[in-house]
Amino acid sequence: MAKIQAIRGMNDILPDQTPLWQFLENTVRQVLRSYGYQEIRMPIVEQTELFKRSIGEVTDIVEKEMYTFDDRNGDSLTLRPEGTAGCVRAGEEHGLLFNQTQRLWYTGPMFRHERPQKGRYRQFHQIGVECFGMSGPDIDAELLIMTARLWSALGLQSHTRLEINSIGTAQARRNYREALVNYLSDFKAELDSDSLRRLESNPLRILDSKNPDTQRILERAPVLDAFLDEESIAHFARLKALLDAAGVVYAVNPRLVRGLDYYGKTVFEWITDSLGAQGTVCAGGRYDGLVEQLGGKPTPAVGFAMGIERVVLLLETLGLVPDYVTNDADVYVMAMGDGALAAAMALSEAIRADLSGKIVVMHCGGGSFKSQMKKADRSGASLAIIVGENELASGTASVKPLRSDEPQKAVNQSELPRVLSEFFGSR
Question: pLDDT by residue (tens digit) across 292-305?
Answer without folding.
Answer: 999 999 999 999 99
